[in-house]
């Protein structure tokens, strides 16, 4: 049976031997004087603490990064002298909470996000345009009464369309055409997105 929890691996040095860590067949393998001694699956390891001198392979370093494994090299008095850390991809506690919520909670969160986005778009337009009302951008009533997250995507798309049409109306820009370069305003907008993201 495979464990659901990741492990921290502690490995001690053998003085007088050539100690190496290598990657082989989804495993991290320990070699002493070029003789294989131990292996652990990369899917089970969270971090490795190695005490003493060690040789590493570049393939192992690459695989440790891909699997989110951190390596800490310690001297004989357990003081860290080198480390290869792997940053976590996002907030796993937040993701766990998101996956365990029901559809009505997800709809409420997406509703709030879209309403905030529309409000921000409206505020941006107010700074540059006169006579704009928030209903020019989106149907607030439609957003607040949406029955599914899929319909919320439609409202968000319509809001973005309304926002861009009003924000760039002085450029005679009537529609967003991604991945095509048929006119100068679209070309400049794509360059702008590239620099500001």
Automatic annotation (TrEMBL):
UniProt superkingdom: Bacteria
The entry's keywords: Antiviral defense, DNA-binding, Endonuclease, Hydrolase, Magnesium, Manganese, Metal-binding, Nuclease
Keyword Magnesium: yes
GO MF term set: DNA binding; endonuclease activity; hydrolase activity; metal ion binding
CDD domains (UniProt xref): Cas1_I-II-III
GO biological process entries: defense response to virus; maintenance of CRISPR repeat elements
PANTHER family found in the cross-reference section: CRISPR-ASSOCIATED ENDONUCLEASE CAS1 1
Subunit (UniProt): Homodimer, forms a heterotetramer with a Cas2 homodimer.
Official protein name in the record: CRISPR-associated endonuclease Cas1
């Amino acid at each position: 049976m495979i464990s659901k929890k990741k492990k921290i691996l502690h490995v001690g040095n053998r003085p007088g031997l050539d100690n190496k860590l290598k990657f082989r067949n989804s495993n991290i393998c320990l070699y002493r004087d070029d003789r294989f001694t131990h292996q652990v699956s990369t899917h089970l390891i969270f971090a490795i603490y190695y005490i003493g001198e060690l040789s590493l392979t570049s393939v192992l370093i690459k695989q440790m990064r891909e699997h989110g494994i951190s390596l800490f090299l310690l001297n004989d008095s357990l003081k860290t002298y080198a480390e290869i850390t792997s940053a976590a991809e996002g907030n796993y506690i937040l993701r766990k909470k998101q996956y365990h919520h029901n559809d009505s909670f997800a709809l409420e969160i997406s509703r709030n996000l879209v309403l905030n986005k529309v409000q921000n778009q409206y505020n941006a337009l107010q700074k540059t345009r006169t006579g704009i009302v928030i209903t020019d951008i989106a149907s607030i009533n439609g957003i607040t009464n949406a029955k599914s997250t899929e319909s919320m995507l439609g409202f968000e798309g319509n809001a973005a369309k309304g926002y861009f049409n009003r924000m760039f109306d002085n450029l005679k820009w009537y529609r967003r055409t991604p991945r095509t370069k048929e006119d100068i305003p679209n070309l400049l907008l794509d360059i702008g997105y590239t620099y500001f993201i």
